Amino acid sequence: MAKNPENVNNEDTPEVKPAELQTKLCEICDKVGSTRCGACKVSRYCSGSCQKEGWSKHKLVCKSFQEYSDFGRPPSKGPGSIFRRAVLFHPDEEKPRFVWVEFKREDIFGDGLLYDNPQLKGFGIDAGGIHYILENARLGRELPHCLLVRYRDNFMNDGSKVNKAIWKTLRSDVKNKTRDWRGPVLVYGLEGVDHEPVPSIDLDTSDFRDIVDWLNTRE
Ligand SMILES: [Zn+2]
Ligand SMILES: [Zn+2]
User: What UniProt keywords are attached to this protein's entry (predicted)?
Assistant: First the structure.
């Protein structure tokens, strides 16, 4: 594979790497990801050893991603409706997987601005719980876009079951320290933070790695 031309200018931007370069870095370390997973053709690695290190998590969604290629996107349900690829952690499933989520471009706040509004009811998630992931703390990188984690606000007290799919993504030393996730958890992407209207985007397997790192670094 050809070397990324962006790499040449690396010295000019020692502090914050531009988003476009960040998407071309190895998922495991700070080097340029010059090879990609041969199966999903998305996740980038600098070397065989980093690919091997990432495999225990990547294997959870590599096949699922291939089953949710752009060709399988459901057709729009009308003006302002679009389906985007997101990541679902279903409480009763053994691992996470990709799903299609419908977004409706709607005037949510009655101020004339149209927001991409995800339709979450079908996933058993009320509007309550929300968290914005904007950086990967393990790698010290800003993310190229915003990941939104949605969950039931009151999952500790509403009878929600322990989320087995999230459990699968946690390192053993984190399992007893982190939040006791329960009920369905869905993660989708926006081009930026939604203080103003920003378009929804598709997530892929490298976004999944950022989600896993977040689940394993938060307290
Ligand atoms: Zn690497
Ligand atoms: Zn893959």
Answer: Metal-binding, Zinc, Zinc-finger
Tokens of 1: 């594979």
> How far is the centre of ligand 2, averaged over its atoms, from the C-alpha of 118 (Å)?
26
CA 163 – CA 170 distance, rounded (Å): 11
Please state the φ and ψ torsions of residue 117, each to the nearest 5 degrees: -105, 110
CA geometry: angle at 122 spanning 118 and 125, to 5°?
70
At position 152, the amino acid (one-letter code) is R
Surrounding ion ligand 1 within 5 Å at CB are 26, 28-29, 31, 46, 50
Please tell me the distance from the alpha carbon of residue 116 to that of residue 107, in angstroms, as a whole number: 9
Query: What is the 131 CA–ligand 2 centroid distance (Å)?
Result: 26
**Sign of the torsion formed by the C-alpha atoms of 166, 167, 168 and 170:** positive
d(CA 212, CA 137): 11
Per residue in 85-128, pLDDT (tens digit) is 999 999 999 999 999 999 999 998 898 999 999 999 999 998 78
pLDDT given at position 194: 77
* Sign of torsion over alpha carbons 156, 174, 131, 72: negative
Q: What tokens were used for 70?
A: 């752009």
Q: Which amino acid would we find at residue 89?
A: F
Six-digit token string for 217:
């670094």
